[in-house]
Amino acid sequence: MDSQVMVALALSLVGGFSTSLGALFVILNQAPNLKMLGLLQGFAAGLMLSISFLDLAHNAMNSIGFLKGNLWFFAGVIFFAVVANFIPEPTLPHSSEVKGKKKSGDEGGKDMMKKHRRQVFFSGIITAIGISLHNFPEGMAVFLGSMKGLRVGINLALAIALHNIPEGVAVALPVYFATQSKWQAFKLATLSGFAEPLGVVIVAYLFPSSLSPEILEGLLGSVGGVMAFLTLHEMLPLAFDYAGQKQAVKAVFFGMAFMSASLYFLELSLPKEMSL
């Protein structure tokens, strides 16, 4: 059990620190490349959909039956829908707004930020809190996936890590523009990602050391529902907005193909006792 917790903790740290990559996107560029972020979100959405439907939900239905598998899956959907209803949504600027800022010049932007400095900084703090709460159940998902097997844990961690990069942007962007401090922006974005490994630690002590196979498969089916809701509710709209519908759809299917290939090669490369 201890080794499983350590593996899950290491995988969740990858996802947690990916918010730092989002912060670097902001502090190293005057304006973030939103089209690249959109393509990245589309690719991550493809990974998540592939994991949700072709791996987690599929395995749950095969293991515990079609009806029970569906009930667990939609329980995860409802759970995360309720959670998302009470958590502030991370917001990025609309692509047209960023272009408008480029055209308006630096002086007008500085005057605007002086007037709204406190408001912008407060919005960054609220976003950081919301993303921290948002990342907590993602840590739970990585832990449960790692209990199933290293293959599942790695795939979940990869998809969540790609998803967390734009969340780091959402935190760092208002903080950087309000404080003009690269360190403050980077620090808050990084701290918001620490909720993911924290979720692993807490869930590791809440769950018993040995779960029945049926309960574990059901919980993983619920994780599939959580991932599916997260993808359709948050990731696809951002991908369509920033990359355009045609490019985003291509990125989604490329992500699905990539994940299918990774599932196949990981299944071949990992020992059987680790991939079950």
Automatic annotation (TrEMBL):
Keywords: Membrane, Transmembrane, Transmembrane helix. It is found in: Membrane. The chain crosses the membrane at residues 6-27, 39-57, 69-87, 120-136, 156-176, 188-207, 219-236, 248-266. InterPro entries: ZIP. It is a multi-pass membrane protein. PANTHER family: ZINC-REGULATED TRANSPORTER 3, ZINC/IRON TRANSPORTER. It comes from the Eukaryota. This is Zinc transporter ZTP29.
